[in-house]
Amino acid sequence: MPEIVTLGDAYQAGWGIRVRCRRGDYTGPAKIERCSYTASLSMETLVCTRGRAFPLARLPARLRCPSCGDTNVQVAFDVPGGALPVFVPDSPYRRRA
Fold it and tell me: So where are the chain's domains?
């Protein structure tokens, strides 16, 4: 299996993509209500809007939860023939609040 590092590579390989909001997944001095938003995204639309050369590692930093507006989202790729989704690790490109 060739290395897949861009949206174009993932689209060609037939991958699916899901996103989950992580708001409320951490504890801190203030209570933050949990957002339970999850959705499947269109890989074709992502390729059209971001371009085929867009790196998969930068994708979580460019997404925002449509329900609560938080930028802390987790991306999972559904790999054909794979039993479990492949999660993208935290990106060095992510802005921290």
Answer: 7-85
